[in-house]
Amino acid sequence: MEILRKIAVPVMAILAFLAVWEALVQINDWPNYVMASPSDLPAAYAQFWELFLVGSWQTLWRTVAGLGLAVVFGLLLGMVMGFSRIMRDALYPLLVGFNAIPKATLVPVLALLFIGQHDFNTVLMAFLISFFPIAVSVGIGLSTLEPEYRDILRSLGASRFTIFRKIALPKTLPEFFGALKVSVTLAFIGTNLVEIVSPHGRGLGALFLSAQTNSNYPLMFAVLIALAVLGIVLYYAVVALERIFAGWAERQAT
Amino acid sequence: MKNLIEIKGVRHAYKTRTGPLPVLDGLDISVPEGEFCAVVGPSGCGKSTLTRLVAGLMKPDEGEVWLDGKKVSSPRKTVGMAFQNPVLLEWRTILDNVILPLEIVAPSMPRRDRVVRAEELLEMVGLSGFEGKRPSELSGGMRQRASLCRAIVHKPSVLIMDEPFGALDNFTREDLWQTMRDLRAKEPFTAVLITHDLRESVFLGDQVVVLSGRPARTQYILDVDLPQDRTIDVLYAQKAADMLQTLRDQIKIAQGRDPEAA
């Protein structure tokens, strides 16, 4: 019953959303170039399914690769900022400034820096846009660790690394996964940004661009929906990882 | 009996923006092996600094701290600590929380032996059957019991406690005093207990050290001349009442007030 409810409720919500969309288009009698309707989409998927598969895969792996880099780099940066006040004071303004730069402006910069390296540029952008929340949350998690937690191991002569591995790291995991949920969406946006903005791109973003060039409006909407589905898959993959590694932080509803 | 803990003429000041802030100014404490030393004093008088000194987590500006015939200059494995906040690790079960110090102190000890040792202690404090629970599933008193087990699981020669019962309600606190008394009878540690509860200091201590207000020095030492297997009733007898009166007067002096005033 519980499982049925968990699946049925979101599915019903999605169906209701599609019905309203379809109704809006039909009632207003919008042509395709204003707004395609859900009933136009299956034809688009059927016709271009191969492009969708290839594009989805390209978008997916580059997002995940960029996010992976962001996790490694964000963790390292967070550790440095969490354990050293001086490094925190030094790096914070730089990080905030970098994060404030609209990432769209970086696309041509990267394109010139690494000419023709499309995959590399895309992964790099996914990484650049998504490491910030991870670094900040890990840094804050580590720097706000209560001193008693450190003292119980330090009084036994444990090394800094042991204290990090046994206490600081696991204790920061809930914050880390909170940030990862934000970062996964950001990385996805970063990937698509490069795919859409740079010429001769790959992935779903490039498919969207070519649909626009060819005035294939149903295809454009089909790509948007495919992007949404991919985003949902990525997000829930992170949620599943969180359940496994930081499930202890979730309190039972009482 | 030799003194296991020897604190001689310790002075210490913290550096602050407005200059040095002296917290300890001539501290002398001796605790014979196996004895229980309770330390009381006005709040903010440097009691917690004392625990960090004994644990070797910091060095005093002046004076010496000796443990078991060796001068303390860095942390050592023969110390156990418990705080007011039980600081259990939420992602570990109670059993694995208790085992934690053994992972540091005795890395080669087989898991089976660690479990046996932890279960033995959990049984002593009345937590049998809770080994697999998470800390968040336990009450405050139970968490503190688990924290005490963790502090002594590696058989430390010194147990340092910084107001471990301070955040508990009165009934739970008295239960834990008795648990502490029973643990003492079975486990061979020498204890330093920082507290602001005079009844606690008399019930558990073999001696009660009264610190003066900041900067703290040893102001008064009370020998608690009561039997080892005391019960809570002892606190309501005349002898304990006299001791509590003496301690209250000493605290007033430490606070800079007149002991004759109300």
Describe this structure in words.
Chain A: It is found in: Cell membrane. Chain A: Pfam families: BPD_transp_1. Chain A: Residues 56-242 form the ABC transmembrane type-1 domain. Chain A: Belongs to the binding-protein-dependent transport system permease family. Chain A is built from ten helices and no strands. Chain A is an all-alpha fold and 254 residues long. Chain A has one domain (44-247): MetI-like (MetI-like fold), CATH 1.10.3720. The radius of gyration of chain A is 22 Å and the shape is globular. The two termini of chain A are 19 Å apart. In chain B, strands 6-7-8-3-9-10 form a six-stranded mixed β-sheet, with helices on both faces. The radius of gyration of chain B is 19 Å and the shape is globular. The termini of chain B are far apart. The chains are: A mainly alpha (254), B alpha/beta (262). The interface between A and B is medium-sized, with 21 and 27 residues.
**Percentage of residues in helical conformation of chain A:** over 70%
Q: Greatest contact pair?
A: A-B, 21 and 27 residues
Q: Return the string of H and E elements of chain A.
A: HHHHHHHHHH
What is the topology, as strand order, of the major beta sheet of chain B?
Answer: 6-7-8-3-9-10
**How would the global form of chain A be characterised?**
globular
Largest sheet of chain B: 6 strands, mixed
First CA to last CA of chain A: what distance?
A: 19 Å
CATH class of chain A: Mainly Alpha
Number of helices of chain B: 7
Low-confidence stretches of chain A: none
Instruction: Specify the biggest β-sheet of chain A.
Output: none
Membrane topology (chain A): Multi-pass membrane protein
Keywords (chain A): Cell membrane, Membrane, Transmembrane, Transmembrane helix, Transport
Pfam families (chain A): BPD_transp_1
Family (chain A): Belongs to the binding-protein-dependent transport system permease family.
